[in-house]
Amino acid sequence: MAAKAGKNLTVFGQETEFDGVLEFTDSLVITGKFHGTINATGDLEIEKSAVCDVDKILADSVIISGQVKGDIEAKNHIELCSGSNVKGDLKAVKLRISDNVEFEGQVSMIDAVPEKDFFSTASEEFKNSLIMRTNEAH
After folding, report:
1. What is the 3-state secondary structure (H, E, C) of 48-61?
2. What is the C-alpha to C-alpha distance for residues 37 and 3, in angstroms, rounded to an integer?
């Protein structure tokens, strides 16, 4: 995984074992062992050599090539690469599952985050959009 422009990339090496709550805002690659919870606004990649036992993973995007046991939620997308083993529920806007993936769990697709924030929309503009949606439904 290449870090996005202006973002840092951190790698937990194969010899790294981490137990606890992990929070980050940029990009993280795990190649070792992780046990706990990940609550991030950045991107996460779990390499083939990684073994993760999590309560929950929450990140912008998650790419899995290794083993994960636990629930995963991505604000953008989840990708299960060939050879990965995932036991847990997935929730994402986009999901890609390659061939030769062992997956056990449920999948929930979520709507993309709206372009505009509800609170930044002018009240008249918001009211008009509701009227238009109501009229389209009938």
Report:
1. CCCEEEEEEEEEEE
2. 22
- What distance in Å separates the CA atoms of residue 112 and residue 41, rounded to the nearest whole number? 15
CA distance 8 to 91: 25
Through-space distance between the first and last CA atoms of the chain, rounded to whole angstroms: 47
The pair of structure tokens assigned to 15 is 């010899």
Measured distance CA(77)–CA(54) in Å, rounded: 18
Q: What tens digit of pLDDT does each residue of 4-49 get?
A: 556 788 899 999 999 999 999 999 999 999 999 999 999 999 999 9
Measured distance CA(121)–CA(74) in Å, rounded: 25
Instruction: State the maximum Cα–Cα separation within the chain, in Å, rounded to a whole number.
Output: 60
Average pLDDT on 62-90 reads: 97
Question: d(Cα 91, Cα 104) in Å, to the nearest integer?
Answer: 13
Cα-Cα-Cα-Cα dihedral sign, residues 119, 123, 125, 128: positive
**DSSP assignment, residue 110?**
-
Which residue has better confidence, 112 or 58?
Answer: 58
Rounded to two decimals, the pTM is 0.77
**Residue keyed to tokens 């290449």:** 2
